[in-house]
């Protein structure tokens, strides 16, 4: 699968999975702006944004839910190896 296809699938799956999280630190609307996958598919940087809420709290909540979100990705995206998810603020343009 091409990186663009993987990134599109990850965006779709994670957007849905994040919206279903029941954590008070996760606002109602969280946008997965983009995902960068490393060439070897071992790491996926997930850039998220939210209109309301505390970004630090959101990133902390997503990191806390990383295991659950990776299991959702593994179940729904057919890949040889599920990438490690790393959550970042979409407003932070550092790579």
Automatic annotation (TrEMBL):
Gene Ontology CC terms, in alphabetical order: cytosol
Family classification: Belongs to the RbfA family.
Subunit-structure text: Monomer. Binds 30S ribosomal subunits, but not 50S ribosomal subunits or 70S ribosomes.
Name of the featured protein: Ribosome-binding factor A
Keywords: Cytoplasm, Ribosome biogenesis
Cytoplasm keyword on record: yes
Highest rank taxon of the organism: Bacteria
Molecular function GO labels: ribosomal small subunit binding
Organism of origin: Deinococcus ficus
Gene expressing this chain: rbfA
Subcellular location per the Swiss-Prot or TrEMBL entry: Cytoplasm
Function, as annotated: One of several proteins that assist in the late maturation steps of the functional core of the 30S ribosomal subunit. Associates with free 30S ribosomal subunits (but not with 30S subunits that are part of 70S ribosomes or polysomes). Required for efficient processing of 16S rRNA. May interact with the 5'-terminal helix region of 16S rRNA.
Gene Ontology biological process terms, A to Z: maturation of SSU-rRNA
